[in-house]
């Protein structure tokens, strides 16, 4: 309710400012621009009043009273006053209020029916009453009109048929009207007064032209938009005034359209017709229709318009264009009241109901690093989590072995994020060790504690954080910490013992501390389901799914009879099976064989960016295949798919392209130099023998081709370039 009310107020204020701008411009454009410009310019105001979209414009925030600031600070201090709690170990039990007492306080502090609720219902009632009144008046008048309809006179009907052309509208007469008028949205009808005054054919022609103009322009739809805007913003007097101005501009622009087809003498007769009908008006208030003479008080402006009528000039048309563009830009802006209201509320602590998880971004970063198995691309994440030493020779995903949990370590009401290994298959961990602790500083997650295989942390059942560190040289230390985000380093040392200084007692105490660690219910990072990680039942697969670890690909090794399923995490080991340093360095996306479908080339490196090789991902029949390529290929890769290759013995190098086959690919050697130890005697270009000069010219043309871009293998790049 609050959001709806703020949106209505924002639209009303934005529309009022645009309406005031039009009002200020009115004296400047009144006699310079066609009347239709003023009439249709109001549509921009109606758009701003009815459509809650546009670029936000924030009002300058007023200075906050000193009293309010002190009250906010006092409220925050009462949320967690350090003087109200005794000094106790972190994580110690905190007295809890009885649920019944909490509910009672909540009911006392939060009124059942807020001020915004009352204002919303007041606005809703006003809207329903205003809209209902217009609809009821229209329905009642339409009923009376239908009961009094009569066929028009023959001469009126003949003139009408001559003027209407292809316009779908009927002509009738009624004793309920005293002036020609147009009614009916879906089935428009022009109603003439049954006891009409004696008029000449030219005057009747002008009257019918007027109503037909209303019909052709869809002015009835325009008027119902005004009714809707007036109903939604019934509390805004400027909107009601705007409705009157639009009604006047509607008649003035319609008069102008009629006058353009009349002679000066006929224009004088048209003015006399308005005078004759002005005294006879008897249309009920609230009825949405167009009439030849809407109101007597409009008559002066309309007669002045008739006397001062002139055709628009080119300068007027240019001014019209400038005015419309300027007003359109203004109409696209909407005042942002929601942000102003939100900024004035008390700050809330992390973890309150309805607030987004502040650790969501860092968890997504961990999931990305664990899925891609590219720990070097995430130096800010603890190595023990993304690249533990026991996983160097293990190519399976770490997603199901690594988990996270949220726990309030110091009882301040803000939960910390803990990460560790799940399961007990390594070192009998039993989900107890903690290798990363994040806390919130100014609402942002900060790495407070980092461990590794020789620097172990556990959370004791007493709420303390225990640590065991070993140098591997017969010296081990144990620490008992109190976690405190306010301290430098986030840890306050409560007690410390070490071996061998403290002897056997230190070992007993330290091992007892570590044994008191609780089993933390870590939530593993989500593994792809069997359906997501297999292509057996899929009709279509994508490079993205393969590269982020959500699906496997079919690896077709050299000289293999059939492919085998592999994951992206296994790719480095396919090229350097015994190296913990192999990784996917970069990737390129391009059409290698000019068939209109892109391939992905993965660049695998080892120590010092040396050795490794390339893996070509090729899509065929809805499945992704992977073909290995030697590390001496795909140098100087060009956007057309050509690249430089060489042989280690130096007896051949050149430029090649890829041609895929049923079981892999072939290298099409486009430029070749052959000999021994990089001294070439035989040269080929496009499989034809050539001279050395022609060979070198082909190389120069190859060098001028644009290079294919290579990208780091990150989730953002995968989503952006594939």
UniProtKB/TrEMBL annotation:
Matching InterPro entries: Beta-lactam_resp_regulator, Integrin_alpha_N, Peptidase_M56
Every Peptidase M56 domain range: 7-304
Key word ATP-binding present: no
Transmembrane stretches, start-end: 6-25, 37-57, 120-141, 316-337
Any Pfam family hit: Peptidase_M56
Keywords: Membrane, Transmembrane, Transmembrane helix
UniProt superkingdom: Bacteria
Protein name: M56 family metallopeptidase
Organism: Flavonifractor hominis
Lineage start: Bacteria, Bacillati, Bacillota, Clostridia, Eubacteriales
């Amino acid at each position: 309710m609050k959001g709806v009310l703020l949106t209505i107020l924002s639209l009303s204020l934005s529309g009022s400012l645009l309406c005031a701008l039009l009002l200020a411009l009115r004296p400047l454009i009144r006699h310079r621009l066609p009347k239709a410009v003023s009439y249709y310019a109001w549509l921009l105001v109606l758009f701003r009043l009815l459509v809650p979209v546009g670029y936000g414009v924030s009002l300058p925030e007023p200075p906050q009273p000193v009293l309010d600031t002190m009250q906010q600070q006092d409220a925050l201090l009462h949320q967690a006053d350090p003087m109200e709690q005794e000094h106790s170990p972190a994580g110690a039990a905190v007295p809890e209020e009885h649920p019944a007492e909490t509910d009672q306080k909540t009911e006392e502090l939060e009124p059942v029916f807020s001020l915004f609720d009352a204002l919303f219902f007041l606005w809703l009632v006003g809207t329903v009453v205003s809209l209902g009144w217009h609809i009821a008046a229209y329905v009642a008048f339409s009923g009376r009109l239908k009961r009094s309809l009569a066929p028009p006179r023959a001469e009126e009907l003949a003139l009408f048929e001559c003027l209407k052309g292809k316009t779908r509208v009927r002509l009738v007469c009624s004793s309920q009207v005293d002036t020609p008028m147009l009614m009916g949205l879906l089935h428009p009808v022009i109603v003439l007064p049954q006891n009409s005054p004696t008029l000449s054919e030219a005057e009747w022609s002008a009257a019918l032209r007027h109503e037909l103009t209303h019909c052709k322009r869809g002015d009835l739809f325009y008027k119902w938009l005004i009714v809707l805007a007036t109903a939604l913003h019934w509390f805004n007097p400027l909107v009601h005034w705007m409705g009157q101005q639009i009604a006047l501009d509607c008649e003035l622009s319609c008069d102008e359209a009629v006058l353009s087809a009349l002679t000066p003498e006929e224009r004088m007769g048209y003015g006399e017709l308005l005078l004759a009908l002005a005294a006879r008006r008897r249309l009920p208030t609230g009825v949405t229709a167009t009439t030849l003479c809407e109101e007597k008080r409009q008559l002066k402006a309309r007669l002045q318009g008739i006397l001062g009528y002139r055709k628009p000039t080119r300068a007027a048309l240019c001014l019209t264009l400038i005015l419309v563009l300027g007003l359109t830009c203004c109409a696209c802006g909407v005042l942002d009241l929601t942000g102003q209201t939100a900024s004035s509320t008390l700050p809330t602590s992390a973890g309150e109901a309805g607030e987004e998880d502040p650790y969501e971004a860092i968890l997504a970063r961990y999931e990305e690093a664990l899925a891609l198995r590219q720990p070097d691309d995430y130096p800010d994440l603890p190595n023990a989590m993304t690249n533990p030493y026991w996983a160097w020779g293990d190519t399976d995903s770490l997603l199901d072995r690594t988990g996270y949990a949220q726990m309030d370590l110091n009882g301040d009401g803000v939960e910390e994020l803990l990460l560790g290994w799940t399961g007990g298959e390594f070192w009998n961990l039993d989900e107890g060790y903690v290798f990363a602790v994040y806390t919130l500083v100014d609402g942002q997650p900060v790495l407070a504690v980092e461990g590794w295989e020789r620097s172990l942390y556990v959370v004791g059942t007493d709420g303390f954080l225990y640590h065991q560190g070993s140098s591997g040289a017969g010296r081990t230390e144990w620490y008992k910490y109190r976690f405190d985000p306010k301290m430098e380093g986030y840890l306050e040392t409560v007690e410390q013992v070490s071996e061998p200084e403290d002897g056997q007692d230190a070992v007993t105490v330290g091992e007892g501390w570590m044994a008191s660690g609780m089993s933390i219910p870590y939530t593993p990072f989500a593994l792809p389901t069997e359906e997501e990680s297999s292509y057996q039942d899929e009709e279509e697969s994508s490079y993205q799914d393969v590269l982020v670890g959500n699906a496997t690909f079919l690896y077709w090794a050299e000289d293999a009879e059939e492919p085998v399923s592999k994951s992206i995490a296994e790719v480095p080991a396919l090229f350097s099976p015994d190296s913990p340093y192999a990784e996917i360095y970069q990737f390129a996306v391009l059409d290698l064989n000019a068939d209109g479908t892109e391939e992905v080339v993965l660049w695998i490196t080892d120590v010092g960016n040396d050795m490794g090789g390339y893996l070509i991902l090729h899509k065929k029949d809805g499945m992704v295949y992977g073909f290995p390529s030697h590390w001496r290929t795909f140098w100087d890769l060009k956007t057309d798919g050509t690249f430089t290759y060489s042989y280690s013995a130096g007896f051949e190098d050149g430029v090649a392209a890829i041609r895929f086959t049923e079981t892999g690919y072939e290298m099409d050697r486009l430029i070749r130099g052959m000999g021994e130890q990089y001294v070439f005697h035989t040269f080929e270009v496009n499989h034809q023998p050539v001279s050395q000069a022609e060979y070198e010219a082909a190389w120069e043309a190859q060098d001028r081709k644009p290079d294919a871009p290579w990208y780091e293998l990150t989730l953002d790049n995968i989503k952006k370039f594939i």
